[in-house]
Protein backbone atom coordinates (compact mmCIF):
# COMPACT_ATOMS: atom_id res chain seq x y z
CA UNK A 1 0.00 0.00 0.00
CA UNK A 2 1.12 3.55 -0.74
CA UNK A 3 2.03 5.98 2.02
CA UNK A 4 0.86 9.58 2.11
CA UNK A 5 2.20 12.33 4.37
CA UNK A 6 -0.28 14.95 5.55
CA UNK A 7 0.75 18.28 7.06
CA UNK A 8 -1.76 19.82 9.43
CA UNK A 9 -1.58 23.51 10.20
CA UNK A 10 -2.72 24.85 13.57
CA UNK A 11 -4.82 28.03 13.38
CA UNK A 12 -7.53 29.68 15.41
CA UNK A 13 -9.30 32.13 13.17
CA UNK A 14 -11.33 30.14 10.66
CA UNK A 15 -14.35 28.15 11.82
CA UNK A 16 -16.13 25.37 9.96
CA UNK A 17 -19.66 26.76 9.82
CA UNK A 18 -22.08 24.26 11.33
CA UNK A 19 -24.46 24.97 8.46
CA UNK A 20 -22.16 22.96 6.18
CA UNK A 21 -23.94 20.00 7.80
CA UNK A 22 -27.32 21.21 6.59
CA UNK A 23 -30.22 19.29 5.04
CA UNK A 24 -32.98 19.81 2.52
CA UNK A 25 -36.53 18.41 2.34
CA UNK A 26 -38.72 19.11 -0.68
CA UNK A 27 -42.30 18.25 -1.56
CA UNK A 28 -41.17 15.49 -3.88
CA UNK A 29 -42.10 11.82 -3.97
CA UNK A 30 -42.22 10.41 -0.44
CA UNK A 31 -40.03 13.07 1.14
CA UNK A 32 -42.72 15.00 3.05
CA UNK A 33 -45.98 13.07 2.71
CA UNK A 34 -45.49 9.42 3.67
CA UNK A 35 -41.93 10.37 4.53
CA UNK A 36 -41.15 12.72 7.36
CA UNK A 37 -44.84 13.65 7.75
CA UNK A 38 -47.26 10.83 8.46
CA UNK A 39 -50.09 12.98 9.86
CA UNK A 40 -51.31 13.47 13.40
CA UNK A 41 -53.78 10.57 13.13
CA UNK A 42 -51.15 8.02 12.07
CA UNK A 43 -50.44 4.90 14.15
CA UNK A 44 -46.76 5.67 13.66
CA UNK A 45 -45.65 7.59 16.77
CA UNK A 46 -45.42 11.24 15.80
CA UNK A 47 -45.19 14.79 17.03
CA UNK A 48 -47.66 17.02 15.19
CA UNK A 49 -47.59 14.51 12.37
CA UNK A 50 -43.80 14.18 12.03
CA UNK A 51 -42.52 10.71 12.83
CA UNK A 52 -40.74 10.54 16.17
CA UNK A 53 -38.07 8.05 15.05
CA UNK A 54 -36.96 10.54 12.43
CA UNK A 55 -37.01 13.48 14.84
CA UNK A 56 -34.79 11.50 17.17
CA UNK A 57 -32.41 10.52 14.34
CA UNK A 58 -32.10 14.12 13.12
CA UNK A 59 -31.56 15.42 16.64
CA UNK A 60 -28.74 12.93 17.01
CA UNK A 61 -27.15 14.41 13.86
CA UNK A 62 -27.53 17.89 15.40
CA UNK A 63 -28.78 19.12 12.07
CA UNK A 64 -28.07 22.83 12.04
CA UNK A 65 -30.36 23.97 9.22
CA UNK A 66 -33.18 22.54 7.10
CA UNK A 67 -34.21 23.91 3.71
CA UNK A 68 -37.87 23.69 2.56
CA UNK A 69 -40.20 23.50 0.54
CA UNK A 70 -38.03 23.06 -2.57
CA UNK A 71 -36.18 22.71 -4.94
CA UNK A 72 -38.23 23.15 -8.05
CA UNK A 73 -41.39 22.85 -5.95
CA UNK A 74 -40.56 26.17 -4.26
CA UNK A 75 -41.28 28.19 -7.39
CA UNK A 76 -44.75 26.65 -7.63
CA UNK A 77 -45.62 26.88 -3.95
CA UNK A 78 -48.07 29.44 -2.59
CA UNK A 79 -47.48 29.46 1.14
CA UNK A 80 -50.98 30.69 1.99
CA UNK A 81 -52.33 27.33 0.75
CA UNK A 82 -50.62 25.69 3.71
CA UNK A 83 -51.90 27.75 6.67
CA UNK A 84 -55.17 27.83 8.61
CA UNK A 85 -57.56 24.98 9.44
CA UNK A 86 -56.47 21.87 7.54
CA UNK A 87 -59.96 21.13 6.26
CA UNK A 88 -60.05 24.53 4.55
CA UNK A 89 -56.72 24.16 2.77
CA UNK A 90 -56.86 23.67 -1.00
CA UNK A 91 -55.64 20.53 -2.70
CA UNK A 92 -52.93 21.33 -5.20
CA UNK A 93 -51.15 19.53 -8.00
CA UNK A 94 -47.42 19.07 -7.57
CA UNK A 95 -46.65 20.04 -11.15
CA UNK A 96 -42.91 19.45 -10.98
CA UNK A 97 -42.96 16.10 -9.34
CA UNK A 98 -45.37 13.78 -11.06
CA UNK A 99 -48.55 15.80 -11.03
CA UNK A 100 -49.67 14.16 -7.80
CA UNK A 101 -52.17 15.96 -5.61
CA UNK A 102 -51.32 17.25 -2.14
CA UNK A 103 -53.74 18.43 0.53
CA UNK A 104 -51.37 21.02 2.03
CA UNK A 105 -51.65 19.43 5.48
CA UNK A 106 -47.92 20.08 5.91
CA UNK A 107 -47.39 23.83 5.74
CA UNK A 108 -45.44 26.74 7.19
CA UNK A 109 -46.43 26.13 10.84
CA UNK A 110 -45.60 22.42 10.62
CA UNK A 111 -42.21 23.09 9.10
CA UNK A 112 -41.19 25.89 11.44
CA UNK A 113 -42.39 24.01 14.52
CA UNK A 114 -40.40 20.99 13.34
CA UNK A 115 -37.27 23.14 13.06
CA UNK A 116 -37.87 24.43 16.59
CA UNK A 117 -38.22 20.87 17.84
CA UNK A 118 -34.98 19.90 16.09
CA UNK A 119 -33.10 22.98 17.23
CA UNK A 120 -32.35 23.66 13.55
CA UNK A 121 -32.46 26.95 11.67
CA UNK A 122 -35.24 27.01 9.08
CA UNK A 123 -34.25 28.00 5.55
CA UNK A 124 -37.30 28.94 3.48
CA UNK A 125 -37.06 28.97 -0.31
CA UNK A 126 -39.53 31.48 -1.71
CA UNK A 127 -41.54 31.39 -4.90
CA UNK A 128 -40.06 33.83 -7.41
CA UNK A 129 -40.85 31.88 -10.59
CA UNK A 130 -44.64 31.98 -10.28
CA UNK A 131 -45.24 34.11 -7.20
CA UNK A 132 -45.29 37.84 -6.55
CA UNK A 133 -43.22 40.31 -4.58
CA UNK A 134 -46.18 40.86 -2.27
CA UNK A 135 -46.66 37.16 -1.63
CA UNK A 136 -43.00 36.86 -0.66
CA UNK A 137 -43.00 39.99 1.51
CA UNK A 138 -46.17 38.77 3.24
CA UNK A 139 -44.58 35.41 4.05
CA UNK A 140 -41.72 37.18 5.81
CA UNK A 141 -44.15 39.39 7.70
CA UNK A 142 -46.24 36.33 8.66
CA UNK A 143 -43.36 34.40 10.20
CA UNK A 144 -41.20 37.25 11.51
CA UNK A 145 -43.40 40.08 12.80
CA UNK A 146 -44.35 40.15 16.47
CA UNK A 147 -46.37 43.37 16.43
CA UNK A 148 -49.75 44.10 14.94
CA UNK A 149 -50.07 43.82 11.19
CA UNK A 150 -52.30 41.94 8.76
CA UNK A 151 -49.93 38.99 8.46
CA UNK A 152 -48.87 38.89 12.12
CA UNK A 153 -52.53 38.95 13.15
CA UNK A 154 -53.32 36.13 10.74
CA UNK A 155 -50.51 34.02 12.21
CA UNK A 156 -51.87 34.63 15.70
CA UNK A 157 -55.38 33.64 14.54
CA UNK A 158 -53.80 30.45 13.27
CA UNK A 159 -52.53 29.63 16.73
CA UNK A 160 -48.99 30.98 16.82
CA UNK A 161 -48.49 34.03 19.01
CA UNK A 162 -44.76 34.54 18.77
CA UNK A 163 -42.94 34.93 15.47
CA UNK A 164 -40.39 32.28 14.48
CA UNK A 165 -37.68 34.74 13.46
CA UNK A 166 -36.66 33.06 10.22
CA UNK A 167 -33.27 34.29 9.09
CA UNK A 168 -32.43 32.28 5.97
CA UNK A 169 -34.41 33.00 2.79
CA UNK A 170 -33.84 31.67 -0.71
CA UNK A 171 -34.87 34.08 -3.43
CA UNK A 172 -36.09 31.38 -5.81
CA UNK A 173 -34.44 28.12 -6.81
CA UNK A 174 -32.56 27.15 -9.98
CA UNK A 175 -33.73 30.27 -11.77
CA UNK A 176 -31.67 29.16 -14.77
CA UNK A 177 -33.95 26.10 -15.03
CA UNK A 178 -37.14 25.04 -13.25
CA UNK A 179 -37.37 28.43 -11.50
CA UNK A 180 -38.11 30.19 -14.79
CA UNK A 181 -35.42 29.48 -17.39
CA UNK A 182 -34.03 32.98 -16.87
CA UNK A 183 -30.84 34.55 -18.08
CA UNK A 184 -28.51 35.63 -15.26
CA UNK A 185 -29.00 39.28 -16.21
CA UNK A 186 -32.79 38.98 -15.98
CA UNK A 187 -32.61 37.10 -12.67
CA UNK A 188 -30.13 39.58 -11.20
CA UNK A 189 -32.64 42.37 -11.87
CA UNK A 190 -35.50 40.35 -10.45
CA UNK A 191 -33.39 39.50 -7.42
CA UNK A 192 -32.77 43.20 -6.79
CA UNK A 193 -36.50 43.85 -6.92
CA UNK A 194 -37.45 41.02 -4.54
CA UNK A 195 -34.61 41.72 -2.11
CA UNK A 196 -35.69 45.37 -1.89
CA UNK A 197 -39.02 44.34 -0.34
CA UNK A 198 -37.56 41.86 2.14
CA UNK A 199 -38.06 43.33 5.62
CA UNK A 200 -36.53 41.57 8.59
CA UNK A 201 -39.31 42.69 11.00
CA UNK A 202 -38.47 41.35 14.44
CA UNK A 203 -35.64 39.09 13.42
CA UNK A 204 -32.88 40.63 15.49
CA UNK A 205 -29.98 39.35 13.44
CA UNK A 206 -31.47 40.53 10.14
CA UNK A 207 -32.21 38.40 7.12
CA UNK A 208 -29.74 36.21 5.28
CA UNK A 209 -30.72 36.50 1.61
CA UNK A 210 -29.62 33.73 -0.72
CA UNK A 211 -29.63 34.14 -4.49
CA UNK A 212 -30.19 31.15 -6.72
CA UNK A 213 -26.67 30.48 -7.95
CA UNK A 214 -25.03 28.51 -10.70
CA UNK A 215 -25.79 25.14 -12.14
CA UNK A 216 -22.52 23.21 -11.71
CA UNK A 217 -19.86 25.01 -13.79
CA UNK A 218 -21.90 27.94 -15.07
CA UNK A 219 -19.29 30.49 -13.99
CA UNK A 220 -20.94 33.19 -16.07
CA UNK A 221 -24.00 32.97 -13.80
CA UNK A 222 -21.87 33.66 -10.71
CA UNK A 223 -20.01 36.45 -12.48
CA UNK A 224 -23.24 38.27 -13.44
CA UNK A 225 -24.80 37.92 -9.97
CA UNK A 226 -21.67 39.22 -8.27
CA UNK A 227 -21.44 42.08 -10.75
CA UNK A 228 -25.10 43.14 -11.01
CA UNK A 229 -26.56 42.60 -7.54
CA UNK A 230 -25.67 45.40 -5.08
CA UNK A 231 -23.71 43.74 -2.30
CA UNK A 232 -25.85 45.24 0.44
CA UNK A 233 -28.78 43.17 -0.85
CA UNK A 234 -27.23 39.71 -0.71
CA UNK A 235 -25.56 37.40 1.81
CA UNK A 236 -25.26 34.11 -0.06
CA UNK A 237 -25.07 32.61 -3.55
CA UNK A 238 -26.31 29.03 -3.90
CA UNK A 239 -24.56 26.54 -6.15
CA UNK A 240 -26.12 23.19 -7.10
CA UNK A 241 -24.10 20.19 -8.16
CA UNK A 242 -24.97 16.50 -7.96
CA UNK A 243 -22.83 13.38 -8.25
CA UNK A 244 -23.99 10.94 -10.91
CA UNK A 245 -22.89 8.40 -13.46
CA UNK A 246 -21.67 10.39 -16.47
CA UNK A 247 -21.37 9.26 -20.04
CA UNK A 248 -24.99 8.47 -20.74
CA UNK A 249 -26.27 9.28 -17.26
CA UNK A 250 -27.44 5.72 -16.77
CA UNK A 251 -27.21 4.37 -13.32
CA UNK A 252 -28.83 2.34 -10.66
CA UNK A 253 -28.64 2.89 -6.93
CA UNK A 254 -27.48 -0.66 -6.13
CA UNK A 255 -26.84 -2.54 -9.37
CA UNK A 256 -23.77 -0.65 -10.56
CA UNK A 257 -20.29 -1.64 -11.66
CA UNK A 258 -16.86 -0.14 -11.05
CA UNK A 259 -16.97 2.01 -14.18
CA UNK A 260 -20.15 3.62 -12.87
CA UNK A 261 -18.64 4.01 -9.42
CA UNK A 262 -15.53 5.64 -10.81
CA UNK A 263 -17.61 8.02 -12.87
CA UNK A 264 -19.76 8.95 -9.87
CA UNK A 265 -16.68 9.70 -7.78
CA UNK A 266 -15.35 11.80 -10.65
CA UNK A 267 -18.43 14.04 -10.43
CA UNK A 268 -18.31 14.07 -6.62
CA UNK A 269 -14.67 15.18 -6.57
CA UNK A 270 -15.37 17.82 -9.19
CA UNK A 271 -16.90 19.78 -6.29
CA UNK A 272 -13.33 20.79 -5.38
CA UNK A 273 -12.86 22.53 -8.73
CA UNK A 274 -16.36 24.04 -8.71
CA UNK A 275 -16.00 25.53 -5.26
CA UNK A 276 -12.51 26.82 -6.06
CA UNK A 277 -13.55 28.49 -9.31
CA UNK A 278 -16.85 29.95 -8.09
CA UNK A 279 -15.02 31.25 -5.00
CA UNK A 280 -12.36 32.86 -7.20
CA UNK A 281 -15.04 34.80 -9.08
CA UNK A 282 -16.60 35.86 -5.79
CA UNK A 283 -13.15 36.93 -4.51
CA UNK A 284 -12.78 39.18 -7.54
CA UNK A 285 -15.98 41.13 -6.78
CA UNK A 286 -15.98 40.69 -3.01
CA UNK A 287 -12.38 40.43 -1.79
CA UNK A 288 -13.44 40.70 1.86
CA UNK A 289 -15.61 37.58 1.57
CA UNK A 290 -18.85 39.17 2.79
CA UNK A 291 -20.96 37.17 0.36
CA UNK A 292 -20.87 33.47 1.08
CA UNK A 293 -20.96 30.41 -1.14
CA UNK A 294 -23.80 28.07 -0.29
CA UNK A 295 -24.08 24.60 -1.82
CA UNK A 296 -27.72 24.07 -1.02
CA UNK A 297 -28.15 20.93 -3.12
CA UNK A 298 -25.55 18.20 -3.33
CA UNK A 299 -25.48 14.41 -3.25
CA UNK A 300 -25.74 11.31 -5.44
CA UNK A 301 -28.43 11.09 -8.11
CA UNK A 302 -29.05 7.84 -9.97
CA UNK A 303 -31.58 7.03 -12.63
CA UNK A 304 -33.14 4.11 -10.86
CA UNK A 305 -35.34 1.65 -12.72
CA UNK A 306 -39.09 2.16 -12.66
CA UNK A 307 -39.75 -1.18 -11.00
CA UNK A 308 -37.37 -0.46 -8.14
CA UNK A 309 -38.54 3.10 -7.78
CA UNK A 310 -41.55 3.27 -5.47
CA UNK A 311 -41.59 7.07 -5.48
CA UNK A 312 -40.02 9.88 -7.43
CA UNK A 313 -36.24 10.04 -6.99
CA UNK A 314 -36.37 7.35 -4.33
CA UNK A 315 -33.08 5.50 -4.41
CA UNK A 316 -31.23 3.06 -2.22
CA UNK A 317 -28.16 4.42 -0.50
CA UNK A 318 -25.03 2.28 -0.39
CA UNK A 319 -21.37 2.53 0.57
CA UNK A 320 -20.87 4.44 -2.68
CA UNK A 321 -23.00 7.23 -1.17
CA UNK A 322 -20.92 7.12 1.99
CA UNK A 323 -17.88 7.81 -0.22
CA UNK A 324 -19.67 10.78 -1.83
CA UNK A 325 -20.63 12.15 1.59
CA UNK A 326 -17.13 11.73 3.03
CA UNK A 327 -15.29 13.44 0.19
CA UNK A 328 -17.89 16.20 -0.24
CA UNK A 329 -17.90 17.15 3.44
CA UNK A 330 -14.10 17.20 3.45
CA UNK A 331 -14.18 19.57 0.48
CA UNK A 332 -16.70 21.86 2.20
CA UNK A 333 -14.72 21.84 5.45
CA UNK A 334 -11.50 22.69 3.63
CA UNK A 335 -13.21 25.54 1.77
CA UNK A 336 -14.66 27.02 4.96
CA UNK A 337 -13.29 30.41 4.08
CA UNK A 338 -16.02 30.96 1.49
CA UNK A 339 -18.39 27.97 1.89
CA UNK A 340 -20.69 28.62 4.85
CA UNK A 341 -23.59 26.29 4.19
CA UNK A 342 -24.29 23.05 2.34
CA UNK A 343 -27.53 21.08 2.23
CA UNK A 344 -27.60 17.40 1.43
CA UNK A 345 -30.36 16.48 -1.02
CA UNK A 346 -32.56 15.17 0.49
CA UNK A 347 -33.45 14.15 4.03
CA UNK A 348 -35.97 11.30 3.62
CA UNK A 349 -36.81 8.92 0.73
CA UNK A 350 -35.39 11.18 -2.00
CA UNK A 351 -31.94 11.09 -3.65
CA UNK A 352 -29.07 10.74 -1.14
CA UNK A 353 -31.39 10.44 1.86
CA UNK A 354 -30.18 9.96 5.41
CA UNK A 355 -33.33 7.96 6.21
CA UNK A 356 -35.60 5.66 4.20
CA UNK A 357 -39.06 4.67 5.37
CA UNK A 358 -41.49 1.88 4.66
CA UNK A 359 -44.67 2.24 6.69
CA UNK A 360 -43.69 2.13 10.34
CA UNK A 361 -40.16 0.99 9.48
CA UNK A 362 -37.28 3.40 9.06
CA UNK A 363 -33.62 2.76 8.28
CA UNK A 364 -30.63 5.02 8.55
CA UNK A 365 -28.40 4.99 5.50
CA UNK A 366 -24.58 4.84 5.29
CA UNK A 367 -24.75 8.57 4.50
CA UNK A 368 -26.50 9.14 7.82
CA UNK A 369 -23.59 7.50 9.59
CA UNK A 370 -21.03 9.64 7.77
CA UNK A 371 -22.94 12.76 8.84
CA UNK A 372 -23.05 11.37 12.37
CA UNK A 373 -19.29 10.75 12.43
CA UNK A 374 -18.52 14.17 10.92
CA UNK A 375 -20.77 16.24 13.18
CA UNK A 376 -17.75 16.85 15.42
CA UNK A 377 -16.52 19.36 12.83
CA UNK A 378 -19.53 21.66 13.33
CA UNK A 379 -18.33 25.08 14.51
CA UNK A 380 -14.82 23.73 15.14
CA UNK A 381 -11.68 25.54 13.97
CA UNK A 382 -10.52 24.35 10.59
CA UNK A 383 -7.02 22.89 10.58
CA UNK A 384 -5.87 23.23 6.97
CA UNK A 385 -4.27 20.09 5.52
CA UNK A 386 -1.81 19.70 2.66
CA UNK A 387 -0.74 16.46 1.00
CA UNK A 388 -0.35 14.71 -2.33
CA UNK A 389 -2.98 12.02 -2.55
CA UNK A 390 -2.20 8.59 -3.95
CA UNK A 391 -4.26 7.89 -7.06
CA UNK A 392 -7.19 5.55 -7.57
CA UNK A 393 -6.81 4.40 -11.17
CA UNK A 394 -9.36 2.78 -13.36
CA UNK A 395 -8.88 1.97 -17.05
CA UNK A 396 -6.21 4.60 -17.60
CA UNK A 397 -7.98 7.38 -15.67
CA UNK A 398 -7.19 8.38 -12.11
CA UNK A 399 -8.68 10.26 -9.18
CA UNK A 400 -7.25 11.25 -5.80
CA UNK A 401 -7.90 8.20 -3.61
CA UNK A 402 -7.54 9.86 -0.22
CA UNK A 403 -9.45 12.84 1.09
CA UNK A 404 -8.83 14.46 4.48
CA UNK A 405 -10.07 17.32 6.63
CA UNK A 406 -9.31 18.24 10.22
CA UNK A 407 -10.55 20.53 12.95
CA UNK A 408 -9.99 21.54 16.55
CA UNK A 409 -13.01 22.05 18.79
CA UNK A 410 -13.45 24.50 21.66
CA UNK A 411 -11.97 21.97 24.09
CA UNK A 412 -8.87 21.67 21.88
CA UNK A 413 -9.86 18.17 20.78
CA UNK A 414 -8.55 17.39 17.29
CA UNK A 415 -10.83 15.62 14.81
CA UNK A 416 -9.50 14.14 11.60
CA UNK A 417 -11.74 12.67 8.92
CA UNK A 418 -10.15 10.59 6.18
CA UNK A 419 -11.67 8.74 3.24
CA UNK A 420 -10.21 6.13 0.90
CA UNK A 421 -12.31 5.73 -2.27
CA UNK A 422 -10.00 3.14 -3.86
CA UNK A 423 -11.79 -0.06 -4.83
CA UNK A 424 -8.84 -2.35 -4.12
CA UNK A 425 -5.90 -0.69 -2.44
CA UNK A 426 -5.61 0.18 1.19
CA UNK A 427 -3.79 3.45 1.76
CA UNK A 428 -1.48 4.38 4.59
CA UNK A 429 -1.67 7.98 5.71
CA UNK A 430 0.80 9.60 8.06
CA UNK A 431 0.10 12.84 9.97
CA UNK A 432 2.67 15.10 11.56
CA UNK A 433 0.96 16.28 14.75
CA UNK A 434 4.10 17.18 16.67
CA UNK A 435 2.83 20.71 17.34
CA UNK A 436 -0.28 19.49 19.16
CA UNK A 437 -0.79 18.34 22.71
CA UNK A 438 -2.21 14.84 22.14
CA UNK A 439 -1.86 11.65 24.22
CA UNK A 440 -3.69 9.27 21.92
CA UNK A 441 -6.73 8.87 19.67
CA UNK A 442 -10.12 7.19 19.60
CA UNK A 443 -11.39 6.33 16.15
CA UNK A 444 -14.41 5.04 14.25
CA UNK A 445 -14.68 3.55 10.79
CA UNK A 446 -17.50 3.05 8.30
CA UNK A 447 -16.50 0.34 5.86
CA UNK A 448 -17.87 -2.59 3.92
CA UNK A 449 -16.41 -5.11 1.48
CA UNK A 450 -18.68 -4.16 -1.34
CA UNK A 451 -19.74 -0.73 -2.48
CA UNK A 452 -23.22 -2.05 -3.19
CA UNK A 453 -23.68 -2.95 0.48
CA UNK A 454 -26.49 -1.11 2.18
CA UNK A 455 -28.81 -1.24 5.14
CA UNK A 456 -32.22 -2.82 4.63
CA UNK A 457 -35.43 -2.68 6.62
CA UNK A 458 -34.68 -6.25 7.73
CA UNK A 459 -30.98 -5.65 8.48
CA UNK A 460 -30.89 -1.93 9.31
CA UNK A 461 -27.52 -2.09 11.05
CA UNK A 462 -25.45 -3.88 8.43
CA UNK A 463 -23.42 -0.73 7.90
CA UNK A 464 -22.80 1.28 11.04
CA UNK A 465 -19.67 2.94 12.43
CA UNK A 466 -17.36 0.56 14.30
CA UNK A 467 -14.37 1.12 16.49
CA UNK A 468 -11.20 1.55 14.40
CA UNK A 469 -7.88 0.36 15.70
CA UNK A 470 -5.66 0.21 12.66
CA UNK A 471 -3.55 3.22 13.61
CA UNK A 472 -0.38 3.98 15.56
CA UNK A 473 0.34 7.19 17.42
CA UNK A 474 3.84 7.86 18.72
CA UNK A 475 5.65 11.10 19.51
CA UNK A 476 3.29 13.27 17.48
CA UNK A 477 3.27 10.93 14.52
CA UNK A 478 -0.05 9.34 13.55
CA UNK A 479 -0.17 6.51 11.01
CA UNK A 480 -3.44 5.08 9.86
CA UNK A 481 -4.24 2.40 7.33
CA UNK A 482 -7.42 3.07 5.39
CA UNK A 483 -9.03 0.01 3.82
CA UNK A 484 -10.74 0.33 0.42
CA UNK A 485 -14.12 2.12 0.61
CA UNK A 486 -13.66 3.47 4.09
CA UNK A 487 -14.46 6.60 6.08
CA UNK A 488 -12.52 7.08 9.32
CA UNK A 489 -12.90 9.81 11.94
CA UNK A 490 -10.27 10.12 14.68
CA UNK A 491 -10.61 12.11 17.89
CA UNK A 492 -7.66 13.11 20.04
CA UNK A 493 -7.53 12.47 23.79
O1 LIG B 1 -33.41 17.79 -5.43
C1 LIG B 1 -34.18 17.51 -6.56
C2 LIG B 1 -34.22 18.66 -7.54
O2 LIG B 1 -32.92 18.88 -8.04
C3 LIG B 1 -34.60 20.01 -6.99
O3 LIG B 1 -35.97 20.19 -6.96
C4 LIG B 1 -33.98 20.97 -7.94
O4 LIG B 1 -33.64 22.19 -7.33
C5 LIG B 1 -32.79 20.22 -8.48
O5 LIG B 1 -32.73 20.23 -9.84
From TrEMBL:
The Alpha-L-arabinofuranosidase C-terminal domain covers which part of the protein?
A: 296-486
UniProt keyword terms in alphabetical order:
Carbohydrate metabolism, Glycosidase, Hydrolase, Signal
Asked if the record carries the keyword Transcription regulation, the reply is no
EC numbers? 3.2.1.55
Q: Does the keyword Signal apply?
A: yes
Q: Which reaction does it catalyse?
A: Hydrolysis of terminal non-reducing alpha-L-arabinofuranoside residues in alpha-L-arabinosides
Query: SMART domains, per this entry?
Result: Alpha-L-AF_C (SM00813)
PANTHER family from the entry?
A: ALPHA-L-ARABINOFURANOSIDASE C-RELATED (PTHR43576), INTRACELLULAR EXO-ALPHA-L-ARABINOFURANOSIDASE 2 (PTHR43576:SF2)
Tell me how this protein assembles: Homohexamer; trimer of dimers.
- Give the family per the record: Belongs to the glycosyl hydrolase 51 family.
Its name, as the record gives it, is non-reducing end alpha-L-arabinofuranosidase
Which organism encodes this protein? Zunongwangia endophytica
Amino acid sequence: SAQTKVDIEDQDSLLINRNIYGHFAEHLGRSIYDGLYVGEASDIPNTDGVRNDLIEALKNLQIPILRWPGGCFADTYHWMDGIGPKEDRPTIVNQWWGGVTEDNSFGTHNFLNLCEELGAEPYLAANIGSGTVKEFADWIQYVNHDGTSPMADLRKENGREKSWGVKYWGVGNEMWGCGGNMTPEYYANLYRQYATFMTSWDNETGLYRIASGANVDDYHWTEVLMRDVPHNLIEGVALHSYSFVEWGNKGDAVDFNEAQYFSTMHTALRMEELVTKHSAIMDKYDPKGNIELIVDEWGGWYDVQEDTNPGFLYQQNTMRDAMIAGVSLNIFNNHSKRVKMANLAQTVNVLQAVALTDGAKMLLTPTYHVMEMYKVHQDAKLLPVSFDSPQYSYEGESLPAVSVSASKDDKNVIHISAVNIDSEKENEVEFDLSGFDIDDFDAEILVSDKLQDHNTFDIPEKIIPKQFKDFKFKRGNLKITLPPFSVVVLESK
